[in-house]
C-alpha cells in the first residue's frame, strides 16, 4: 500500500498529521501489508523530518515526489535531492515518485543510471506518466534491476503489454477486482477480455473527470462503506447530491458488484 500519495493528499497534510497517519497504518496493518510511505514535501526540511520518522517504523520503503515550486533543474540535481532524502532512512528502500503533477519533467532513464551510483537503497520509481517509451527504457535501465510500478490506471493494458508487472493507482482503492481481472486476462492471452474490461474503466474515469479525481475518489469509497471525508482546498469538495451521483454512476458501471 502506498500511503500519503496523491489520493491520500499527503502534500495537503501537516508534518504531524502525516506522522500520525503513518503510525496508524503501521498499527492497523499488523505486519500484513508492505507499506511504502510517501514523505515528499515542498520543503526538504519537512521531507527529511518525515523520512527520519519513517525510518523508525515497520515499513517497506519510503518515497518522495520532486519539489514542485523550486524544482530540480537537471537530472543531477534531482539525484542529489533524492540521495539526501533516501539517506535519512537508510534501512528502507526508496522510490522516486515520478508524477506529472509535480512539474519535474526529467529523463527517468538517466535518473536511474545516475542514481544507481549514488543511492544505495534505491528501489525504483513510482512511474505516474503515460509515456510508455520512457517507461520501457526505465524497465531496462541498469540491467533491469529496478522495480518500476506503473501508476496511470487507465493506461494499464498498454503498460502490461510493454512489461509492467506491478501497479500503484488511485482507482485500485475501490475498483481493484476489475484491474486484477484485467491482469489475469492479459496473462492468459485473452486480449478481447482485456479490451472489454476497459469498458468499465472508461466509465469510471469519466466520473472522475466530471467531478474531480481526488474528490470523486473519496466519494467512491462509499462503495466499501468508508467515509473518507472531503479534500482540502484548493480542491473543491463535492456537495451531498454530487457524492450520491458519483456513487450511483459507479454502481451503474458495475463497481458495486466489484466491491463485493
TrEMBL record:
<protein>
    <submittedName>
        <fullName>Dihydrodipicolinate synthase family protein</fullName>
    </submittedName>
</protein>
<keyword id="KW-0456">Lyase</keyword>
<feature type="active site" description="Schiff-base intermediate with substrate">
    <location>
        <position position="126"/>
    </location>
</feature>
<keyword id="KW-0119">Carbohydrate metabolism</keyword>
<feature type="binding site">
    <location>
        <position position="168"/>
    </location>
    <ligand>
        <name>pyruvate</name>
    </ligand>
</feature>
<dbReference type="InterPro" id="IPR002220">
    <property type="entry name" value="DapA-like"/>
</dbReference>
<dbReference type="InterPro" id="IPR013785">
    <property type="entry name" value="Aldolase_TIM"/>
</dbReference>
<feature type="active site" description="Proton donor/acceptor">
    <location>
        <position position="96"/>
    </location>
</feature>
<dbReference type="Pfam" id="PF00701">
    <property type="entry name" value="DHDPS"/>
</dbReference>
<dbReference type="GO" id="GO:0016829">
    <property type="term" value="F:lyase activity"/>
</dbReference>
<keyword id="KW-0963">Cytoplasm</keyword>
<feature type="binding site">
    <location>
        <position position="7"/>
    </location>
    <ligand>
        <name>pyruvate</name>
    </ligand>
</feature>
<dbReference type="GO" id="GO:0005737">
    <property type="term" value="C:cytoplasm"/>
</dbReference>
